[in-house]
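User: Can you help me understand a structure? I only have the sequence.
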Amino acid sequence: MSTSATQTIYERLRADLLAGRRRPDERLKINELGLAFQISSGAVREALSRLTSEGLVTAEPQRGFRVAPVSLADIRDLTMVRSQIEGICLRRAIACGDVAWESAIVASHHCLARTELRPSDGQPGFSDAWLAAHADFHRKLTDACDSPWSLKLREMLFTQSERYRDMALSADEGERDVRREHRELMEAVLARDADSAIARMTAHLTLTTESIEAAFRKHPAND
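Assistant: Let's start by predicting it. Here is the structure, written out as tokens:
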């Protein structure tokens, strides 16, 4: 089995899952994916197994693989736990971070602010470039945290939250100023004001969850 083939389909499927291009509970048929990506069924199965270990895909005996489901209960619990972990990571990063860490945050924020939110081809949802820049910015904010386990948990929770992001976009209707939220979050971190940074992060996550809840109300079948 080609390691590069497995990595390629893993990365492409993962990007589709996080961007909302694969819908919750959608069946992921190994043979169809193999034909679509022109790679072996073994490589597809290995990629899906990796995605299962990340909680992005579910596997059931005799039923194969599916996109992991979403629910209001899940995103509410996820937001509560993520807010707590982000707070721990931010406080430690602010206490331990140096000038190089600050510079990396500024550069990452500049990249995020200059990246188009929507795909250039007019497709719905977020552009892959924006999703990558957004993930990098949030990661840079906590990179100086001196607790590897806290950072691992933060990354896992962030990834799970991304599965809901396209729902938030559909419900925002242009009323939310996410760029301002990111800028103010960066400014609080660079000012070394841990309490303000944590409060802004919590508010940032809460607004996203409220948008997701609005999307569930519009489409109750998602729950």
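Now, to help you interpret it: The CA atoms of residues 168 and 208 lie 6 Å apart. The domain at 72-222 is CATH 1.20.120.530 (Four Helix Bundle (Hemerythrin (Met), subunit A)). Let me know which part you'd like to focus on.
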